[in-house]
Amino acid sequence: MPSWPSYCSPAAAASRPGWHCHSAAKEIALPGDSSRFDYASLDPDRGLLFIAHLGASQVIEVDVHKGRVVRIIDGLSGVHGVLVVPALHRVYATATDANQVVAIDEATGTVLHRSPTGDYPDGLAYDPVHGTVWTTNESGGSETVVDAATGATRGNVPLGGEAGNVAYDPTTRQMLVDVQTGNELAVIDPTTLHITRRVPLPGCDHDHGLILAPTNRLAFIACDGNARLLTVDLTTWHITGTDQVGDDPDVLAYDPAARHLFVAAESGWVTTADNHDRHLTITGRAHLADGAHVVAVDPTTHLSYYPIPHGPGGHPALLVYRPGP
After folding, report:
1. Interatomic CA distance for residues 123 and 113, integer angstroms
2. Distances in Å between the alpha carbon of 115 and those of 99, 110, 140, 164, 243?
C-alpha cells in the first residue's frame, strides 16, 4: 500500500501530547472511473458506507467490516448528497442533474421513490420527529421538505440566498441551514416551516459545511471562501472560535464519542480538531490526496473514511484511517 500521510508527524505528537494523530490503516478499491466523489454516509451498526460517485451518477455501497464493495446503485443523475437513515433502513440521495431526492432501500439498493426538489439539490438531513427529509437546493436558495416514508412534498422554505448544508438539532428539534451567500445561519421551525432566527457569521466567507455537536450545544461551520472554521454556541448564538483549515473546506464529520472533528477540503487538505470543554483545538493537518474533500467517521471504531478519485495506479479508492501514530 502506498505510504499515505499521517495527520500529524510523530514528532508533532511527541511535542504536543494533546495532538491525536491518524494513520493509514488500509485502502479499499472502488469501481468506476476517476471522476468526482461527493458526500458519504455511514450506517455504523451494519458497517455500510454509502458514497456518492457524482461523476458516474452512482451511489457505491461498501461493507467497511469486510473491506469490499457490496453494490452499485445506478440512475442517480449527478448525485451529490447521500444520507443513510438506519432507523428506516433507507438511503436518500440527491440526483442533482434531475432536481430530485431519491429514496433507496438500504438492504436491496432498490429505488423506492423520487421526489422533485428545487434547483441544484445538494446536502440532506433527516428530522425523526416529523419523519421528513430536508434537501438544500443550492442555487435554488431553498429547502425542500419531503415525507421520508412516501416521498410526498411537505413544503418548501425560501432562504433568501444560496443554500449550504443543513443539519437537524435533536435538542431543540430545529433545522439549521447555511445561507452561504448571506454569510449567515438560518434556524427553521420544522413544524411551521418558518425561519425563526438568522445568525450572522462575521469572519466567514461563504458558509457551506455544517455539522453539530448537539450534546455540547455547538455548531461547526466551514467557510469555503476564506478557509475558516467557525464554532457557534447553539445556546447564545455567539461565535466562540475561529480556526484556519485547508483551502476550500467542504465536508465535515464529527465523532461524538471521541469529540473529534474532521474537516476535508477541496484542496486535499484534512484538518482534525478536538472538542474539549466546548473549545476546539486543532490537532492535525495533512495533504491527504488530490480530491480528498469527503470524509465519514465511525463513532464506534473511530475509523475515518475518504473516497478519492486517484488512488493506486490512478484508480479510485477508499482510504481508511485509524487513530494513533
Report:
1. 18
2. 8, 15, 16, 20, 38
271 by Cβ neighbours in 10 Å (0-12 / 13-18 / 19+) ranks as buried
For cell 448537539, name the residue: 214
pTM confidence score: 0.96
Angle at 309 between CA 98 and CA 163, to 5 degrees: 40
- From the list 283, 191, 175, 187, the residue with the least C-alpha distance to 229 is 283
**Nearest residue to 188 (alpha-carbon basis) of 179, 176, 199:** 176
Low-confidence ranges of the chain (pLDDT < 50): 1
Q: Which amino acid is at 90?
A: R
pLDDT single digits (tens) 117-149? 999 999 999 999 999 999 999 999 999 999 999
- Whole-number Cα distances in Å, 218 to 83, 161, 278: 21, 23, 7
- For the stretch 174-188, pLDDT in tens is 999 999 999 999 999
Task: Let me know: does 145 contact 156? Beta carbons within 8 Å.
Answer: yes
User: Which pLDDT value is given to residue 22?
Assistant: 86
